[in-house]
């Protein structure tokens, strides 16, 4: 009877070790991150602005790991097209923002968007982000 109990304990500890090794393997590897960015449908909102969004608008990225230990910033997301960012494997929230700041200003549209994704070891993952107009000024005219 003692031998059966020992075999059961050995099998249970082996199973726990195998599960914990598989879990840590995901977190310990390095994956690569790229970003595909687009603007929301402009027909949804009528914008009265001196400047329309342009193709050369710069979007910066904030990349924050779900674990709270990993975070990265990228000044211009377009650099990731030729050189993906090496990050620790895990789940991330990727936030893209345009412009110099988040304050609403006349003639300076500000766009932002975010998504979450899982980066796996030795693979390239693409964050697909749709940015929409954010922090806008509103003028209400009454008759």
Describe the structure.
This protein is an alpha+beta fold and 143 residues long. The protein has one helix and seven strands. The chain has one helix spanning 2-28; strands at residues 30-39, 59-65, 71-74, 85-88, 90-98, 111-119, 124-133. The protein has a seven-stranded mixed sheet with strand order 3-2-5-6-7-1-4. A hairpin with a 4-residue loop joins strand 6 and strand 7. It is elongated and about 65 Å long. The termini are far apart.
Q: Record the strand order, biggest sheet.
A: 3-2-5-6-7-1-4
Q: Residue share in helices?
A: 10-25%
Overall geometry: elongated
Strand element count: 7
Number of helices: 1
Strand content: 35-45%
Main sheet? 7 strands, mixed
Low-pLDDT regions: 9-26, 44-50
Radius of gyration: 23 Å
**Mean pLDDT over all positions:** 74
Which H/E pattern describes the elements? HEEEEEEE
- For the terminal residues, how far apart are their CA atoms? 91 Å
State the assembly state of the protein chains. single chain
Q: What class would the helix/strand composition place it in?
A: alpha+beta
């Amino acid at each position: 009877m003692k031998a059966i109990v020992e075999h059961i304990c050995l099998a249970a500890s082996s199973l726990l070790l195998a599960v914990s090794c598989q879990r840590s393997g995901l977190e310990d590897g390095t994956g690569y991150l790229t970003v595909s960015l687009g603007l929301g449908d402009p027909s949804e909102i009528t914008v009265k602005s001196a400047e329309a969004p342009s193709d050369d608008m710069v979007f910066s990225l904030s990349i924050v790991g779900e674990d709270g230990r990993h975070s990265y910033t990228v000044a211009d997301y377009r650099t990731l097209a030729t050189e993906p960012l090496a990050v620790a494997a895990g789940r991330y929230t990727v936030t893209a923002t345009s412009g110099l700041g988040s304050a609403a200003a006349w003639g300076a549209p500000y766009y932002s968007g975010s998504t979450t994704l899982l980066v796996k070891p030795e693979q390239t993952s693409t964050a697909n982000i749709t940015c929409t107009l954010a922090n806008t000024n509103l003028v209400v005219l009454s008759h």
